[in-house]
Amino acid sequence: MSLSYCILGSGSSGNCLWVKGGGTQVLVDCGLSARQIGVRLEEVGGRLEDIAAILCTHGHSDHIGGARVLARSCAFELWATAGTASFLPTSLPEERIHALPYGGTLRLHGLTVETVPTSHDCPQSVALRLSDGETSLGVVTDLGVATDAIVNAFKNLDGLLLEMNHDVPMLLEGPYPERLKKRITSKWGHLSNEQGAEMLRAVLHDGLQQLSLGHLSEQNNTEDLARAAAEAILEERGGKGPALAVVVQHKVGEPVTLTPASAKKVPARLRQLALPLR
């Protein structure tokens, strides 16, 4: 067993992550349009009708905007904290909405979902740690500061989607109004490249296989700046570290299959090639 995942979109225009493992398939957030989620799933071999649940990290529209139309097209369960549920469309059937613990653990078939409260300007927003018992994936975006609780929960992961939202000089010198700049840089806003790099330093370990940098601002960051911030941390370990990908808003990321620790002990020539999300 192992987790497979693919980032369908990450950024202020819409967020959605496909995760397959533990005998089930889920989406983390549904901030893209229902049509785009369906199209992007098909692009990497998935189908909307196979999605069993949607896990919502918080109630901003770039994370839940597709929920209403998706509810009409597939019979998923939608899991949200009480704070997030208050932002969901009232047209959603109540029986389809389930309580995601705000700092706790949920079991979905063979998938364990741990939620960790985040510092963000949306009630009861959470980061997620997903595991099938052999491999684990952390999803942490939309937070103004990486608390000790976040750092402790995100140690010893196999895969990590980490926010690097903005480059501070680009943001401060850019066209955003002052109130928006203050909001983004506050402890209730988003992680800068430097803050994301510091969190990476705190959770980086030899077993981390895949690092994806996400939720980049299209106005206040660049792929090169985000990548450089992460690579500087990896270079502290002699350049050894996980595969690194920078996720952009309008392009589907490459599918990733994480390798269980037990499989790593098998000689490479004898391993079966990991299959993509199909």
Compose a concise summary of this entry.
With 278 residues, this protein is α/β, with parallel strands linked by helices. 26% of the residues lie in helices and 24% in strands.
Could you explain the architecture of this structure?
- There is one protein chain.
- With about 280 residues, the protein is α/β, with parallel strands linked by helices.
- The chain has one domain (about 5-250): Ribonuclease Z/Hydroxyacylglutathione hydrolase-like (Metallo-beta-lactamase, Chain A).
- Helix content is about 25%, strand content about 25%.
- It is built from ten helices and 14 strands.
- The protein has helices spanning about 35-45, 60-65, 65-75, 80-85, 150-155, 170-175, 180-185, 195-205, 225-235, 260-265; strands at about 5-10, 15-20, 25-30, 55, 75-80, 95-100, 105-110, 110-115, 125-130, 135-140, 160-165, 210-215, 245, 255.
- A seven-stranded mixed beta sheet has the order 6-5-4-3-2-1-14.
- A hairpin with a 6-residue loop joins strand 1 (about 5-10) and strand 2.
- The two termini are about 15 Å apart.
